[in-house]
UniProtKB/TrEMBL annotation:
Name used for this protein in its record: Glycerol dehydrogenase
Keywords tagged on the record: Metal-binding, NAD, Oxidoreductase
Catalysed reactions, as listed in the record: glycerol + NAD(+) = dihydroxyacetone + NADH + H(+)
Stretches assigned to the Alcohol dehydrogenase iron-type/glycerol dehydrogenase GldA domain: 8-154
Keyword Oxidoreductase appears in the UniProt entry: yes
Amino acid sequence: MLKIFGAPSRYIQGAGALDTLGQYAALFGRRAALVIDSYVHGVLGPRIEALCAAQNVSLIPLMVEGDLTPAAITQLRAQATPAGIDMVIAVGGGKALDAGKAVAKSSHCHLITVPTVASNDAPTSKNYVLYDAHHNLLAVEHMLFNPTIVLVDTAVIATAPANFFLAGLGDAVSKKFEAEQCGRNGGRNMYDGAPPLTAQFIADGCLRTLLADGADAVAVAGSGQPTPAFERVVEAMILMSGLGFESGGLSIAHALTRGLPKISGVASAPHGLQVAVGLLVQLDLESRTDGMLDELTRWYALVGLPTTLRELGAADMPDDAELRLAAELSLKARHAANFDRALDTDTLAAALRRRA
């Protein structure tokens, strides 16, 4: 199996980074599809239009609302096709960025992602998630290549509510441990190749940054005033985490997001918070003796991440049927095979019960 590493062509981060959008967009043509939700369009739309117009780039707004379903993608693509676009600019949270990826894939054009929250590592990755009409995860699709440019304005990110930032911490903290399991057990990464050492080193650096600066970064989330610690943690949550999971691979922590929503009360919990609890389940199953489970549990309490299913929104004690269903669905995820030993439903359900 060949080792494969993938990444965006360019990553730009800092307060005021959005001001460079027009000049970067102009590198790829004169007509861009602006994939964005109505709220973000109301806040940033005029600024984005002015920045692009100054560089002679016209925008065709494609509005995103609700879950990204196959029907929603069909509608967005139908709007983009006759517009003769040269590129896609996707602005907003994970759903808007995923929608931009779907449009860019069908249009065979460059993609610029502009996240407005740091709730996950979607900005750097080539994959996007589809849901059915009942809000259930349907499939994970992929662009051929990663976004061409990722533009992260930390002054914008710092205005987002702290709960989005916490979700980003939860999504990112697992990457070191999942990449370890994938690499150690012959798993494949998101490029269907063997994880290179580079990805593991990046994932290791991601964890070190989060543990060192996470609490200070959370303290200023929502203030609109990014600090050096905030800058470092945003880079860890978006760039390091994104490269770490795509090229390093995933394991139990992310596999559990397939099953955890079947536990009453958990479905509404953000993806990153589900991953955070899933990581504690994974570390429990690893039977680690290095004290890492205890260290992370203390850090979770410090920054405000959930440590139990109850803190995710579950009932006081999920029943056995729910836990078994969650375990069964999780073990069907491809990433579940990237582990030191084959897990069965009873073993995983028991680990979930210990985390109730």
